């Protein structure tokens, strides 16, 4: 029997060597074809995944064999399945036969930051790709015993999507689903399952109500790289996605070569574009067409003779004489209509109509709408074009000025791609390295490298760099020279290197094209007086959300970009939390290692849990949910922004942007209950927002709160381990399984931890853990951990400028004037912002304000020289140095401060305003004196509190009357915003100092935002009663929340003796003037 079907990639798939990047190609790799291996065979048979068979030593068996063993506790009859083929369908290949590149990093346990040289790269077949699946069965063996029924239910597991192929199964890769007609195998017999077989699938959803930013690895510009490097025109044209396909393809052919000068290429593009459009319109509009005509002579002939047409009939038909009809059917319809009650004569007249071919020169309406809509041209040009459609030159003359209006937008994308040529220098290094390997292999093939030279790293072949030669020898140190020279293997290796170079170059081009799209470019100031805010002066955001290529029918054979959160990120976040908790409660013990490895896996050991990627529930309309935020480092001495240290982020926010993922656990045994119980604790943490995903955690990103939306439990034994997990539940029969399906609250409530997590020792460490280098570590919890709930009370009008383009703008005689709204959780493009904005204090602004005060209070004036010599502020708030492994995440996380219905007003601030000075409790106008500065210890500038300066004017609206002023909306006094500060692993002095810096003493207040010099931005922070410390010994022991949350008595933590420069801070932060 031959069973045919289709295998769908529910997630991306990687098949290949763990040390390589490329997906394993069929044959010698020349045609770049891919498949999923049918049978265990070849040189990598001890490690490879395949559907059937086993390795020579029997240590590795096929996935169907394993599934059979898992379900029935017996081996699949040898020879039952004789052959499996699984080839990727031709429609699922992109044009170059290369796929997506999935990359990941490993985070250092102590620093909670990226570990150098510990990243991975895998080429993964697109999600939603389709494979042709063919399975050949031995009919005689199939008829024996329960073999048919057993094979049927094995394939039903594939049909249900409970099957994984390839690497990274626990990290979101390899899940496949079968579609096939299994009726020939169906049987009324239900084979008996292995009692221990079971499968738990938990579906989770979360939205971006708590902001999320899982950063993409691409687009990191290296300032050291020259500003212009070689690029092909084809790559620049491919990025112009608004162009209709036919126009783009012609431009690619005409402008495909290497670019010597971007400006010269733009001029050529400006000349080509209107001509290509004109040629295409003429091709669509001018040409021979077939028509049906009733000649006058033929009608006259029909009117003669014994049975000639009557005068009445002829009169009705005469208006149709010599009139062209597009088809025979159209002619007949017109005749029937004209003849009315004589319609029976239509057939006779139709027989004498003639078919003619003639040249049409009528503008194709649909073609014009397609190109005008894609390019943004004026659709009203249609009449002018229709009049000149017979002349290409006349069309070009009309289209050239029309295209000039849209060129700036297209040039902007070109400029962004040129700028991105300086990004991701690691790709150039990898390509250069791979090209070096290729050169060496070709020399080996040509006999230019001998065995004596092969063993000596100092005998460097001509044309090869010493570093690449040493690296090549090291990579092949286990390969004997004679084996390396095998022509078949060497040629295949050369092909792989060529494919690798082409893949990296092509994928890098794709990422640059994506990053150069307008919605990924920030708004920056430029033009006259630096007043025009536009994307044409911007650059790609420093961090945009993670995305991958997936198969889509409308992706022009290239794959379509899709936002997602990798399963590796989710698994890593869960494992990090589990490791911190267990090491806190059980220490660095064998028990801790065993439970972690049991749940998450280890080298050569599969873990219990498979985490999927998290995909958007609605991936096609996320635009309004992307918000932007700017982060600008301030000069501590001047209080002014350091423009070269500006970063901007495009992040997910809002309940309309929802992600979904699933967690799978197979074959839970009694001995696994402790590990599964830990998983349940972790799921509760995830629901409570305690497992952050992605980057910028210390700036409030990623602390999402998940919901359990659905749960499915399948078991062979209804009275087995499932009863301990879920209690007594009514299960239904589903084929060979007993099944439990729960949704919503019922699914969430049934997940309960069987075992509490309690300390193995008397108490949890009261001091923070430290790494060998001396800094406080993130590897476990210790010291003081908890959350400060803070309310900010605005004392003087407060302005923090919105991110992106201004919401208001106008033009005066001197130039453009912008009106800036207050910062809100909103898209960077003004047109995308809704009427109901969520105004907020940006997390980075809060963090920056408190970091500045803490720096003074801890006297952290000396910069940190390396990770082992961190000053007090860098050790607490986080630090990034130079060189590998010289970064550490902070131990504080600041949330966004959301306002509840604040009152706002417009203000006008003319400039310059430094001649106004606040001295002696009042504002004075001193034209000849510079602006006053309050410096603490000649190092840190602090803006004293003051009422608004007289130069400031409050307005009724955006009513600019002069070019020499700033116009903005500010939140008025009395408004309140709430945010949280999470903290962990603080020692006593750090918490005391932090508490003072947040709450301050009565009569003191903070300042933040713009125009602080003129009295804006005074606010007071109140630590609220629902702030708490965590008692880890009780956190997972089972008592209610209030037992492990210890209320914080703020006054007990305010200790002025730990505050350096205390008197100076008291003077600077005093609010008596208000």
Task: Profile the largest sheet.
Answer: 10 strands, antiparallel
Q: Label the overall shape.
A: globular
Total number of distinct structural domains: 6
| Helix content range | 25-40%
Q: Regions with pLDDT < 50 over 5+ consecutive residues?
A: none
Q: Using DSSP, what is the number of strands? A: 40
End-to-end separation in angstroms reads 89 Å
Q: Count of DSSP helices? A: 31
The amount of beta strand, in percent, is: 15-25%
Q: Radius of gyration from the CA trace?
A: 36 Å
What is the averaged pLDDT score? Answer: 89
Structural class: alpha+beta
Describe the structure.
It is a single chain. This protein has 1074 residues and is α+β, with helices and mostly antiparallel strands. The chain folds into 6 domains: 2-192, no CATH class; 233-287 and 363-420, no CATH class; 295-352, no CATH class; 425-542; 561-750, no CATH class; 784-802 and 842-899 and 919-952 and 970-1069, no CATH class. 30% of the residues lie in helices and 22% in strands. It has 31 helices and 40 strands. Strands 7, 12, 13, 14, 15, 16, 17, 18, 19 and 20 form a 10-stranded antiparallel sheet that branches. Strands 21, 24, 27, 28, 36, 37, 38, 39 and 40 form a 9-stranded antiparallel sheet that branches. Strands 22-23-35-29-34 form a 5-stranded mixed sheet, with no helix packed on it. A hairpin with a 2-residue loop joins β22 and β23 (815-820). α15 runs antiparallel to α19 and α21 packs across α22. The longest helix has 29 residues, at 487-515.
